[in-house]
Amino acid sequence: MTTVGYGDFGAYSEWEIIITIIWMAIGVGFYSIVVGTLTSIITDQMLHQETLQSKLKALETFSKENNLDETLSKNL
Question: What residue spans define the domains of the chain?
Answer without folding.
Answer: 14-75
